[in-house]
Amino acid sequence: VAHCKRFFFCGQEPFVADEYIERLAWRTPGGGSRGGEAFDPKRLLEEFVNHIQELQVMDERIQRKVEKLEQQCQKEAKEFAKKVQELQKSNQVAFQHFQELDEHISYVATKVCHLGDQLEGVNTPRQRAVEAQKLMKYFNEFLDGELKSDVFTNSEKIKEAADIIQKLHLIAQELPFDSLMGFCCYPLSSPGKYHDLECQLIQEFTSAQRRGEISRMREVAAVLLHFKGYSHCVDVYIKQCQEGAFLRNDVFEDAAILCQRVNKQVGEIFSNPETVLAKLIQNIFEVKLQSYVKNQLEEHRKSDAEQYLKNLYDLYTRTTNLSSKLMEFNLGTDKQTFLSKLIKAIFISYLENYIEVEIGYLKSRSAMILQRYYDSKNHQKRSIGTGGIQDLKERLRQRTNLPLGPSIDTHGETFLSQDVVVNLLQETKQAFERCHRLSDPSDLPKNAFRIFSMLVEFLCTEHIDYALETGLAGIPSSDSKNANLYFLDVVHQANTIFHLFDKQFNDHLMPLISSSPKLSECLQKKKDIIEQMEVKLDMGIDTLNCMIGQMKHILAAEQKKTDFKPEDENNVLIQYTNACVKVCGYVRKQVEKIRNSMDGKNVDTVLMELGVRFHRLIYEHLQQYSYSCMGGMLAICDVAEYRKCAKDFKIALVLQLFDTLHALCNLLVVAPDNLKQVCSGEQLANLDKNILHSFVQLRVDYRSARLARHFS
Questions:
Q1: In whole angstroms, how far apart are CA 569 and each of 566, 588, 638?
Q2: Which DSSP helix (H) or strand (E) runs through 60?
Q3: Is 529 in a helix, a strand, or coil?
Q4: With CB atoms 3.0 to 4.6 Å apart as the test, which of 33, 342, 401, 597 could cross-link to 488 if both were Cys?
């Protein structure tokens, strides 16, 4: 098997001993692998022995061949190593020769450079002499008055002619006129020939521009660069660029398109494209835009302030947007300052007094909005006192019912309008936007504060505050019958409006003043407005007196003495009295109205005050009647209904007061023997004994000796 492995491993196919034995046995007759053939172990053994001998012979032959190849490989390796050594020696010799050659080349190059310098030193004066000779030749032609050279007669060589005339012109200008040479050169130093050629070059540039020949324009511009008329060439280019460029109504869009087109072209024509483009932009701003802005603004400057401000804001915005687009181009080092100066030059006369126009328009517009609203209501605004004697008289009249003068009948009108508020806020919002855009950064906080002051004057003072004052003056006295409490509607609308005012304060004013000292002034002004309105709302708490008065009127009209002392004790079919039903219905409406009219802590404060007064009213009302046993039960049912109504207040103190009142009403029906036990209960134990006694005295059986004895 080992011999077989060695043999087969020499080939590409891997050797598997089992497969090899199987194949050998299969090929051998009597190996037992063929069907129907008897197995002959001797013959198989003989075949194996013969095959092993063959493999041994083959192994020896291969081994000899391997040894021969190894000897040959060693011999060739020695010969290759010897050859490599010889090549290394040859390479070293070649490297030495290369170094010698490199040194020789460097020596020759040095000699050549020296020789070139010597030749240049000789050739430069020679070239100058040749050029001077040519200039003298052309100079003679000018002196003779006959230009015969091809450079002057051939129009295609205008570039060479321009270079010659430029040099002769400079030479002639350096010579004094009083010398003979200067006198002879006067024709060259005079503007005639020089300017004639300049005009010819500019005309050629103009023609090339009209034909759209960029390469020819570049050549002529390069020639004119050394002439005094180069700036005139730029002017001609700028003028022709604008021909047909402003045909639409949108001059700003046309200007942007023109500058983009010229920006792509100018670098191919002029050696200083940023200067040419900047000059084009300056020309557009100073000529096209300035005249357009003037025509748009002067038309409405004195006749229509609203349209004037809208146009000013729109034109300034579009101009700055155009400036932002132009910032993408190369206009030199400080293009931001350059464009800012151009914008300022256009609008400076309009921006100097912008805020005065803005404030004047805002004042007249706001006054008109308010007046138009009051006219629609057929209402003449009247002066209502806000303090001092008149305020004291009004409050005394409301609180004490003294007839100190008639109150104002508003006929249910709140004199507050969402439309008016939206219009005022919209006008102010637009004013803030214009202020942000048109004001100088140093004046922005001051101007924004002035606009805010206008909003405060017309929205807060002239509209909200006037409505509150009118509402206060329209509050009816507490003894009025069927009084309509419109002041709560005023409070509700004023609260909504002030939220809108506060939102504009935060959204539009704060960003303009957030980093300036004007911030504290605005916050203080806003705080003063809030405090002033809260004072008036606090004064409106007298509305609660009217509510209590209405409740008193309902109780007086609906409550009967027989309700709590019925003639037939055994035939009472009602659960609670009619007076209780109407009072509870009225109270629930007022509670809902208060919740809708106010927000925050103000709701709880007013409801607590109303709840306490409501409790006192019911307490004092119950003290006016005598109660039989069944009447006492009906009183308890009434108080239970009042207590349900008190839950709508969602004020713990109010609910506690009615719980105590309900417990007191139990004294009207409890058995005499249980009075002391009830009075010492949890809800009544801490009450004054006189209060308990006053309720017990309301019982019709109080005079009985037994009840008096038990309670004492």
A1: 6, 32, 17
A2: helix 41-144
A3: helix
A4: 597
What amino acid occupies position 347?
Answer: F
Q: Three-state SS for 627? A: strand
List C-alpha distances in Å: 655 to 594, 607, 645, 652, 667.
18, 12, 9, 5, 19
Q: Which two tokens stand for residue 390?
A: 């008149």
Structure tokens at 372: 């138009």
| Strand (E) or helix (H) holding 540 | none
Exposed / middle / buried, residue 639 (Cβ in 10 Å: 0-12, 13-18, 19+)? buried
> For 286, phi and psi rounded to 5 degrees?
-80, -20
Residue 192 C-alpha from the chain's centroid: 63
Name the band, by pLDDT with cuts 50, 70 and 90, for residue 536: confident
What sign does the dihedral 9-12-17-23 (CA atoms) show?
A: negative
Whether the CB-CB separation of 285 and 233 falls below 8 Å is answered with: no
Per-residue pLDDT reduced to its tens digit, 89-117: 999 999 999 999 999 999 999 888 888 88
Other CB atoms within 10 A of residue 287 CB: 11
Judging by beta carbons within 10 Å of its beta carbon (0-12, 13-18, 19+), is residue 552 exposed, middle or buried?
A: middle
d(CA 297, CA 303): 11
Distance in angstroms (rounded) separating the CA atoms of residues 490 and 466: 11
Structure tokens at 295: 């025509």
Residue ranges, CATH 1.20.58.1970, the chain:
562-710
Cα 657 to Cα 277: distance, rounded to the nearest angstrom: 86
Fill in the DSSP letter of residue 506: I
Q: What's at 510, amino acid-wise?
A: M
Taking only the tens place, the pLDDT of each residue in 356-368 is: 999 999 999 999 9
CA distance linking residue 237 with residue 208, whole number of Å: 10
pLDDT the model gives residue 492: 79
Give pTM, 2 decimals. Answer: 0.62
Contact predicate 698/663, CB 8 Å:
no
| Structure confidence by residue, pLDDT tens digits, 400-432 | 443 333 455 556 677 888 899 999 999 999 999
Give, for 338, the enclosing helix (H) or strand (E): helix 335-351
CB atoms within 10 A of CB 21: 13
Cβ neighbors of 471 (< 8 A, separation 6 or more) are: 410, 414, 415, 486, 487, 490, 491, 540
Q: Under CATH, which architecture does the 562-710 domain have? A: Up-down Bundle (1.20)
Q: Give residue-wise pLDDT tens across range 549-558.
A: 888 888 888 8
- Which tens digits make up the pLDDT trace of 126-168? 776 666 666 666 555 555 555 555 555 555 555 565 665 555 5
pLDDT given for residue 393 in this prediction: 40
376 has pLDDT over 80: yes
Cα angle 534-535-538, degrees, rounded to a multiple of 5: 85
Helix (H, G, I), strand (E, B) or coil at 552: helix
Q: Distance (Å, rounded) from C-alpha 356 to C-alpha 312?
A: 14
699 beta partners: 627
Query: What integer is the mean pLDDT of 516-533?
Result: 89
**Contact assessment for residue 15 and residue 9, using Cβ atoms and an 8 Å cutoff:** yes
Going 647 to 648 to 650 to 654, the CA torsion angle's sign is negative
Please state which of the ranges 68-72, 415-419, 565-569 shows the lowest mean pLDDT: 565-569
Under a CB-based contact definition with an 8 Å cutoff, are residues 705 and 632 in contact?
no
Average pLDDT, the chain: 80
